[in-house]
């Protein structure tokens, strides 16, 4: 290192060394610590000095103080036994790339001033389209998460269906616009509902769904036929948040396109099934849609935050989301990164995606997806072997909904598990029943993690009482 290089690095050295030490401690202890935080928000606020001091402090000491303050309030979301939400873990290459993204400090808005990160994101986007079997010339934007990705896609859809009726929402707004309908199945995810509200579409008109949450195609066809005067957007889903079920894309997309509707697919975690030869059948026909949203920080296991918005017509995406000003680089033939997401300024969140895909390769991504689904199936098999418990959903992908005999017992089991700390699974209600929902999304959820999870559930069911003493009906621990 030259003297000049040393001078440039010196202000960061103490802080980065401290951060590295605390990150190493966290990662080496995470998998064996109780998953739950040791204190709540009030306890955390009590630990933080609320007075903003007049004088500053040494950077390394601030990082040390931060780690000391935060640790009791951290939840081990990266644990292979965290099933509470579809969170995912983080692959080492993606974590390393994310650290570099912070150090590089590039505003990934334009291809001109930040060509390195823009190029990496463009390659990552092309790889995603290839892996997911989506049209190769689609526009790909890296947003904060599924909510923002759904929003980007629905804004694009909104403007496109209005243009089809001769109206330009980019100049006229929505007050005088033709009427738009947003149709969805009754199991539509809240992120689509939120995105629709933000896009000015209002709450979706639900057309029904089957027991597993798959959209009622006949109900969709009826809804489309009964109101032909409105511009229409249809929202489908790849992976129901409770059951993991996938809509019938072939039939639903055909019906929607026959009626002239735009079709958007919310595939926050489920769209990744298309990357697995073994599970690709679940997403059959999904490539026929007009837009798709997914999360790389879910199934792909890159650090937060990294949603992905994909639109078949890249020009339409840029027309709706692009920003233009005299001080910005001139419009080029290829849209800039800020033409594909709602943000003008953002970190290079697509770079960890590139790193994860480079480290895994095509076979590794398929293996990751298969491993998550396999762990979910193993959990379901183990749960079914426990007296007094039942699995309520058809386990087709990565979601398992577990219930005891009564709602009270089910809710008590969920509370016990979260308090005990070996396992963290969320409580919910589905099809009129309380459930403990296990969402498998961490690449580290292996056979040992499954074994420990089943053991914790058995102990929890016994501890909450009111159940038959949980035991394996076949008298042996699951493999």
TrEMBL record:
Any Pfam family matching the protein: Pyridoxal_deC
Gene3D superfamilies attached to this UniProt entry: Aspartate Aminotransferase, domain 1, Type I PLP-dependent aspartate aminotransferase-like (Major domain)
KW Transferase (keyword) present: yes
Cofactor: pyridoxal 5'-phosphate
UniProt KW keywords: Aminotransferase, Decarboxylase, Lyase, Pyridoxal phosphate, Transferase
Transmembrane segments: none
Gene Ontology MF annotations: transaminase activity
Domain of life: Bacteria
Family: Belongs to the group II decarboxylase family.
The protein's name in its UniProt record: Aminotransferase class V-fold PLP-dependent enzyme
Species of provenance: Microbacterium awajiense
